[in-house]
Amino acid sequence: MVSSGTRTESSADRGGGKGFAAAEEGRSGGTERSRSRSSGGCSSAASGGSAAEMAEMGWGRWYGRKELEAATEGFSRGNVIGEGGYGVVYRGVLGDNLVVAVKNLLNNRGQAEKEFKVEVEAIGKVRHKNLVGLVGYCAEGFQRMLVYEYIDNGNLHQWLHGEVGPVSPLTWEIRMKIAIGTAKGIAYLHEGLEPKVVHRDVKSSNILLDKQWNPKVSDFGLAKLLGPGSTFVTTRVMGTFGSFPDVPYNISCSYVAPEYASTGMLNERSDVYSFGVLMMELISGRTPVDYGRPNGEVNLVEWFKGMVANRRSEGVVDPLIETQPSIRSLKRLLVVCLRCTDLDSLNRPKMGQVVHMLEGDEFPYRSVSHYIFLEFN
After folding, report:
1. Most buried among 231, 247, 311, 333, by the most CB within 10 A?
2. What residue spans carry the region label Disordered (predicted)?
């Protein structure tokens, strides 16, 4: 996949199948609770507030640099499990034998400060089984590090596009489990928190998986908060998108919602679009952009919609799935994909509605052809 966005490869994009962190339901007793606090609190903490102040706000434990240096064996290259333009992630073992992932943020023009603030504010007090959990942090001088719970089963991108043999271990049932769990995690960000959190970088490499294939949405370094009454924020376009060599800015061939790419206006429906692309990727096993494919198949969204419109829905299913899905189950997910990637953002469902569509016993349409008619006519 070609990335021509302003943000470089995220820390979860690399790592040789190890991933870097996960929130575990058991840690919080399955508690899923909202929070209510102003954005100013984190701002003061991230710019030099005391460890006591941050701990009091419920943002996890404060770790000293020496403690994390010892846990990672001096930030040894042998312990690197992910790296990108925003920092390096290390596997570490704390004094109480707790295995963690330590994200050491690079301070490029103050970027470490920004990423630290965003991630702490976005997930510092969040406890949800489908969201990565923050264990603690380090803020000494200009040093900014984030400590997460560790997971060693990689991310969705690695399982979809890595070398897995002739049969994918991701059965249709597992893929549905990943789809539902990811939708629940994003829905909680949008609808269970105040202010709501727009992730802004939903993609397969940011979906971590535990040994039971439970998904954990990770990497909140690009997230934005929307307070009460706010319908959108205007921001510089960031995320993961591709471009064709002869088209300098082809916004349709990526995870990035077209209205966000063209105007910079961001809200939760931008995440919904990205989730729709992710679901197409999950069904097909294809990346959002693949220049190695024939003309007409490079852009996943265009190819996928074309196949469905031409009544060739079964042809979009990953051939590495040994047992193909039932027509009913496939159509359910196809409708989710099409509705989430509707070019008119107002027609996209909310993530809570997406969860209902994925879990509901009653199929939302008698036939996918109803939505196809609306989509292509």
Report:
1. 333
2. 1-49
Q: Which of 222, 214, 216 is nearest to 84 (CA)?
A: 222
Q: What is the pLDDT of residues 298-326, one digit of tens each?
A: 999 999 999 999 999 999 999 999 999 99
Question: Which CATH number is 25-149's, of 3.30.200.20, 3.30.390.30, 3.90.480.10, 3.20.20.70?
Answer: 3.30.200.20
Name the segment(s) of the chain with CATH classification 3.30.200.20.
Answer: 25-149
Q: How far apart are CA 323 and CA 213, in angstroms?
A: 18
Active-site residue identified among 201, 210, 271, 342: 201
Task: Answer yes or no: is 331 a known binding residue.
Answer: no
CA distances from 154 to 66, 162, 188, 208, 349 (A): 28, 11, 23, 6, 29
As assigned by CATH, the class of the 156-376 domain is mainly alpha
Q: Would you tell me how many other CB atoms lie within 10 Å of the CB of residue 212?
A: 8
In tens, the pLDDT along 229-279 reads: 544 454 544 544 443 333 333 433 489 888 888 887 788 999 999 999 999
Nearest to residue 355, comparing CAs of 191, 221, 237? 191
Instruction: Answer for the pair 2, 293: CB distance below 8 angstroms, yes or no.
Output: no
Burial pattern 168-202, b for ≥16 Cβ within 10 A else e, equals bebebebbbbbbbbbbbbbbbbbbbbebbbbbbbb
> Exposed, middle or buried: residue 165 (CB in 10 Å: 0-12, 13-18, 19+)?
exposed
**Spans in the chain with pLDDT lower than 50:** 1-49, 56-57, 230-232, 234, 236-237, 239-253, 365, 367
Asked whether the beta carbons of 67 and 140 are under 8 A apart, the reply is no
Quick one: tokens of 114? 């920004």
Q: Which run of H or E residues covers position 102?
A: strand 99-105
